[in-house]
Design brief:
Order of helices and strands: HHEHHEHEHEHEHEHEEHHHEEEHEEEH
Number of strands: 14
Largest sheet: 7 strands, mixed
CATH class of the largest domain: Alpha Beta
Distance between the termini: 52 Å
CATH superfamily of the largest domain: Type I PLP-dependent aspartate aminotransferase-like (Major domain)
Structural class: alpha/beta
Helix content: 40-55%
Number of domains: 2
Strand order of the largest sheet: 2-8-7-6-5-3-4
Radius of gyration: 21 Å
CATH topology of the largest domain: Aspartate Aminotransferase, domain 2
CATH architecture of the largest domain: 3-Layer(aba) Sandwich
Strand content: 5-15%
């Protein structure tokens, strides 16, 4: 039998999806599972999005769309970034993808040759390492432990960029931690980035409309406009608008780089489906009451989650200020047992928590921080409280 390409051996299934699938199977078997594992917003877009789709069906031409994206959608994206404090982009600076993950893969493919170095902080989104490995790039990971609130320091960044890595990848707000960098923290990182002109910058900002406590969204190009010519900013409809299944991601950046992404689109996906395009335009240009309301709801759920976790002796949860994740340090459990089962690490803990309490969480090691686990708190309030009570009971039973 002929051999598969070597890169397929470097590709790994998503750790998050493996756990989510296990939780789904348990639930199908009649178990009362509380699923904190997958980052699905668990709300639907406003009715105007569905009405736009119904209206579109009457004029569907059955045609292919644009490799870059429909002009009306590009204009909506440009306006979206301007509203976020990033004016000055045009259609030439924008392209779309089938979700942010495909857009990120395109970016990595456009910027990284085999053997190139990509730098990013940990905890990190699981796909960062996976994409780098598939492409044969070298991932240089900068540890940001709970003691520094999971945030990258300017000194760490300055040292890492001293070797002129090809790409610096930065996620704000963070998946998995929910951490948000303040205005001053982003400005300090921007000061470092201008000193290292040979490195591309990817800002994964897909949770930028889900920021709490009045911190606001900030990006390095706001503080150092010269960074605009080597910075790509990723965004998505998935989290903000409750549209993960619609698969709409987009990127703004320097025109020459975006043109390369459009070319890759022409070979990878051809175009965003026209029906999805209509939904995306409606989401971006229509009423914003749904995402605004959900941001407020998630902020209140965040408070409930942190309060519950901090009530467990020895557990510490740096306070998330965005997205919809909590990332507590649960290493106090290591070396203990639960009903006779040893808890040596985060994987053991998450496995025992799922098997005994039917609460699905993701081990922190999947994100590069093995002392922690990730909780996605988007489920209904009654489910959230049930899951938190079970977690507290689990820790109380450790010996």
């Amino acid at each position: 039998m002929p051999k598969l390409a070597a890169r397929t051996g470097r590709a790994k299934p998503s750790a998050i999806m493996v756990i989510a699938e296990t939780a789904k199977q348990l639930r199908a078997g009649g178990k009362d599972v509380v699923n904190f594992s997958i980052g699905v917003p668990n709300f639907l877009p406003g009715g105007h999005v569905y009405q736009a789709v119904r209206d579109w069906t009457a004029r569907d031409s059955g045609s292919y769309g644009s490799n870059r994206g429909a002009p009306a959608l590009l204009d909506a994206i440009v306006a979206h970034f301007a509203q976020s404090g990033l004016p000055g982009y045009t259609r030439d600076n924008v392209t779309v993808g089938i979700g942010a993950k495909q857009a990120l893969y395109n970016l990595a493919e456009a910027l990284l040759d085999e053997g190139d170095e990509i730098v990013f902080p940990s905890p990190y989104w699981t796909s960062y390492v996976d994409i780098a490995e598939i492409l044969g790039a070298k991932a240089k990971i900068l540890p940001c432990p709970p003691e520094q609130h999971y945030k990258l320091t300017p000194a760490q960044l300055d040292q890492a960029l001293g070797s002129d890595p090809k790409v610096f990848l930065f996620n704000n707000p963070s998946n998995p931690t929910g951490m948000v960098y303040t205005r001053d923290e982003i400005a300090a990182l921007a000061d470092v980035l201008v000193k290292h002109p040979n490195t591309w910058i990817i800002a994964d900002d897909i949770y930028n409309r889900l920021i709490f406590d009045g911190i606001g969204y900030h990006n390095v190009v706001q503080f150092k406009p010269e960074l605009r010519e080597r910075t790509f900013i990723m965004d998505s409809l998935s989290k903000t608008y409750g549209m993960p299944g619609w698969r709409v991601g987009f990127v703004v950046g320097p025109a020459a780089g975006v043109k390369a992404l459009v070319t890759l689109n022409s070979n990878h996906i051809t175009c965003l489906p026209e029906v999805v395009t209509e939904a995306a335009i409606a989401a971006l240009t229509g009423p914003q009451d749904v995402p605004t309301t959900k941001r407020e709801e998630f902020s209140k759920r965040r408070d409930d989650v942190v309060r519950a976790l901090e009530s467990i002796p020895g557990v510490h949860c740096p306070r998330p200020q965005g997205a919809f994740y909590a990332f507590p340090d649960i290493s106090v459990a290591f070396g203990k047992t639960h009903k006779g089962k040893p808890i040596a690490n985060d994987v053991d803990l998450c496995k025992a928590l799922l098997e005994d309490k039917f609460v699905a969480t993701v081990p922190g090691s999947a994100f590069g921080e093995p002392r922690s686990l990730r909780i996605s708190y988007t489920c209904a309030p009654e489910q959230l409280q049930k899951g938190l009570d079970r977690i507290k009971q689990f820790f109380a039973e450790l010996t």
